[in-house]
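User: Please predict the structure of the protein below. I'd like the answer in structure-token form so I can feed it into my own downstream comparison script.

Assistant: Understood. Taking the following sequence of 418 residues as input:
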Amino acid sequence: MSLLFVSVLLIELFGFVKPDAVQDQAAPENIVLPDPLVPGLYVFGDSQVDSGLNTHLHTLMTAMYKPYGIDFSIGATGRFSNGAIITDFLGHDLQLPTTLSYGVYRSLDKVVRSGFSYASASAGILHKTGLELGENWSMGKQIAMFNKTVQENLRRNYNSTELPKYLSECIFLVFIGTSDYETNYIEVYYNTSKKYTSEQFGSLLVMQLGYQLKALYRLGARRIVVFEIGPIGCYPASLKVFVPRTKCAEHINDMVAIFNRKLHRKIEALRSQLKDATILVAEMYGLIKDMIERPSSYGFTDARNSCCQVGSGGIGLCVPETDVCPNRQANLFWDDLHLTEAANAIIAGKCFTDSDFCVSTAGILLGQSPSENVLSFDVNVVTGEWPSYELPTPQELASLYLLSLFSHIKSLKGFCKG
């Protein structure tokens, strides 16, 4: 059993240790942990919230080496930052143990009730996104793995009445879409930008994501927070590639803004269709853009350069075993694609406490049930089986996983207007 595996299990059991905690102190005896505010946290997404899943895949997109994790309590774990990522802070605020990567669980013979992260670096809404870098779990596959969790993990611990209630009270976080631009639409290895205009591509992504959110709903999710794509035209990777005359590569930000605008409209539509669900959009684009334009207001002195050394002509990641900036708290960006722990903490704090950012996640998601009909998809208590008209069939899950492979044969005329 590897040291990493043991360390991750210890964190899962005893919770996320904040970076400024004293590591050498002995744990007090008879410690009483506070009750969690929700029963579980389930995370879907890309490298922004990958907590180690890609270390189990054959891919160039991995962060299982120094200087990644230089400020994390157990060092490099596959997180793409110097320390904790957004979901670590959110889980801590929810008083939950650190959310385990599903890749760790595959070696863990126990029921985990506090949630999993299925996030995979370079993954996208579309199946083919990021595959030139190696393996990843696309959003469709992540949902399929969550279905496997429900069937093989959670049903071992919850009966047919308890399971829907448990799932309806958990929070589901979705950080997806960035890689569909960074490692697909604006990537030279793909011809996506030749096939679709920015408007069409944004519509394609949002249409597919809408199907995927409905699949999560049908699997029991009732409290969902979807994060916007950040202003990636301002990230160091874009500045190096496009060398804009202004502070950011605004043509890239314009593409992302199209997606974000359509995302808001899609979520509004889903709210009207799924009456017993609470689905929110975390407005991350404006927050990060404000950090870039007014860095001193957030305690940053550098909002343009990466903290670690990034090789030229690479994929935007830190060069292994190299020096980093001495004051990581003052940098917005860790590498060319990802934020520092300090920035992640600000975003998580805003989501948990600021009603203008996450539309009061703490109040709406934690303070009340989504509706009186939250258990409207109840299982059959006699047979203990999930009704087939509520759970996605294997064929439906497969179609979610493969839809993007065949999207080029469909006319965009019907949906690109949205």
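That's the full token string. The beta strands are 41-45, 100-101, 116-117, 171-175, 223-227, 278-282, 302-306, 331-333.
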